[in-house]
Design brief:
Keywords: Transferase. Pfam families: GGACT. It comes from Spirosoma arboris. This is Gamma-glutamylcyclotransferase. GO terms for molecular function: transferase activity. This protein is an alpha+beta fold. It has a single domain, classed as Gamma-glutamyl cyclotransferase-like (Hypothetical upf0131 protein ytfp, Roll), CATH 3.10.490. It is 17% helix and 36% strand. The chain has three helices and six strands, in the order βαβββαββα. Strands 1, 2, 3, 4, 5 and 6 form a six-stranded antiparallel sheet that branches. α1 runs antiparallel to α2. It is globular and about 40 Å long.
């Protein structure tokens, strides 16, 4: 596994078509290179999703992959703040930044990701694994 990949997968409010300040920042500094999936489950947290990675899972979470190599440090630092990740936040944090293998362009590619870090016991499962589809605003890849 790559310990500092050039790719990031986003599966929630950073993913198109969301247009918050942080999603705009990612789109301006990273390059959308397509759709990907990873083994795990997505849960509905209310106004955003949380995903857990599980290499033994038969289900997959859907997301958008960005190449962030040009401004990797700046992008990850900014998104760490958005996701509440790092020593400056009360521990344990709701999300953690991790690296997972993502099925992208018919191959497994290591990607940074923000995974849910707390209990999901009382959270509704997103059956499709696709938060955009779950909320009725499915992502459509640019032509």
């Amino acid at each position: 596994m790559t310990n500092n990949p050039d790719f990031l997968i986003v599966y929630g409010t950073l993913r198109p078509p969301f247009d918050n300040t942080f999603a705009q920042y990612l789109r301006q500094r990273g390059r959308n290179v397509g759709e990907g999936t990873f083994k795990g489950k997505a849960f509905d947290m209310g106004s955003y999703p949380g995903a857990v990675y599980d290499e033994t899972s038969n289900t997959r979470v859907h997301g958008t992959v960005f190449n962030i190599s040009n401004q990797k440090s700046a992008i990850l630092t900014y998104l760490d703040y958005y996701e509440g990740v790092g020593e400056d936040f009360e521990q344990p944090t709701e999300f953690i930044r991790a690296i997972v293998p993502v099925l992208f362009n018919d191959t497994l590619t290591d990607c940074w990701i923000y995974l849910y870090n707390l209990s999901t016991d009382d959270k509704p499962l997103i059956e499709s694994g696709d938060y955009s589809k779950h909320i009725g605003n499915p992502y459509q890849s640019p032509a």
